[in-house]
Fold each of these.
Amino acid sequence: MENYNLKMPKSVHAGDQALEQLENIINKNIKKIVIFTSEGLMKLGLTTVPIEIIERLGIDYTVITGIPPEPSYIEAQEAIDKFKEENADFIIALGGGSIMDVAKLASLLDTDEYSVKDLLDDPLLANKQVSSLMIPSTAGTGAEATPNAIVGVPEKDIKIGIVNPEMIPDYVILDGRMIQSLPTSIAAATGVDALCHAIECFTSEKANPISDTFALEALDLIINNIIVACKNNDAFEEKGKMLLGSFYAGVAITASGTTAVHALSYPLGGKYHIAHGVSNAMLLTPVMKFNEPAIKDLLAIAYDRVVKEDQHLQTIDEKSAYIIKELESIVTELKIPTSLKTFNVPKEDLEGLVEAGMSVTRLLVNNKRPLTAEDARNIYLEVL
């Protein structure tokens, strides 16, 4: 039997009033906490409960904001340099994927030995220096579960994933209040990002019994709750299920890995600064249709798991087609752009996209159906 490996945060708190568990997480020996978050989340009052708990415990803290969406490695380093000045011994990240990714890098880089740029070349250089807690404010990126941090590399017009098992957070809090007021567009883009994580990990070349357990549960939770959770701020139960699904999909990434959807989306974020979830949503259906000959049996298993009523389809072909159509309809119903024309990307950039996309070999090797430059070219043409 093959060997499988799973690394997870050592403590995960989820459900109603999960934020209040912060008091049990914070060690009495902690002297200084740095909170990575954003001005917008502070204005929404999402940092109020954590800060009140920290103040009640009498622990010193500093808040770091100003991390841009989809930061470059230079911007990430700027935030980390501010963090290093604080001499903190605990990190809390309250935000979306970019904020959590920078906080995870900070947990390694509380040292002058290495920089973010150094980790682009050798991600395993650094070891954890400071314990971390992640509190996601979107149900999408799964960054609270993964050993990955995604940063832009401006000189190459691409985003690169820094992967180091030491970056897996120590603690996670999943509280539905964090995503209750998300604008529909952000909830949709991040939710479809989680959907991509689930279906890609389940159909990955590196999929295994451990990752399949989390990927299928994530797919079930997300497909059956994403529309209501994104469109209705009062759908607290569905939002909680999306948070859990996003976390499970993140665990699946750690045990397996994403595929060509993510690989081909990285140049779209790196060069054109298209939101990560939007670029994934654009490529989801074209890549799944390309992969279908190699993953039909897996998509049929997914159908059997996620369709709760009226399971009338019998053949693998019918079930596979249904799942791909369902993924497409979710993107359509949530009104996520499906064409690069929306972002004024010219067809003249096609060859640059192909070259950049094909360079993401870390993820392309996970694709069940081998993908050539010509295949990538045809997929990009579908969305240009």
Amino acid sequence: MKMVAPPLKLSAQECRFLAERAFAFAGVQIDPRNQDFFQLRVSRRLRMLGMDNFDDYMSLLESDGTGNETRCLTEALTTHTTSFFRECHQYEWLQKEGLQRLSASGAGFERPLVVWSAACSTGAELWSAAMILEDAARARGGLRKYQLIGTDISRPVLKKAAGATYKEIEIDGLGDAHRCRYLMRSTTATDLEKRPYYRIVPELRQHAEFKWANLSNLSGFQDCAADVVFLRNVLIYFSEEVQQRALNGVIDRMRQGGILMTGHAEVVSPRPYLRMIRPSIYEKV
């Protein structure tokens, strides 16, 4: 078996080149001074390609006429942090007030109530919302129709989100009731520590679809009229210009009266067609 030699250290100039490439593709801002970060992420990419030095990889990027490797680079540099029921106050508001507010316009009854996780990562955010919707659907007089859409710039995390399979450590945010109701425990598959895997039940998976999307340019993502959008903990990675472009693109794909949920640390600049209901919860008016 051929051994791949360890790559040399990335130079400051190469880190700037990589950062500029990711920014041009997706508007993602990564500090090029963080050389250790680039070294780790790009080294993984080299191993996948069977390359043994950064010079060859830089040449590959420079000749990347299709953009495929630039996309793979951006995926490698993007951080995906998520968990079930993260920022739980938003799910509580959706359950106690939001669904009733949306149903007044026919969402969930006359037509499907559409929830879009715009930077869905491995899916925990969208599946958490799905559990709230399914709880409502199982209640007397509750929802009758709903649709789940997850998008992300990383194809590997989209694959995991669609597969809806998680390690025990990844379901920490789930209470016992939701675990019992919406997870299937594997009786055979285990992780390296012999702990079982869990999968979202088919009753939820049948409502969901996952698609690739670049939030910095949503022109290719048109088939969406969302009632609820989760756009959380992603704007912080964009420049001010890209933040505004991403926000406008998302809001354009929301129904009037739809709800936008952002990360608690993210600032949404005032807009005449967006009203804050609570901190990090907005309504399109």
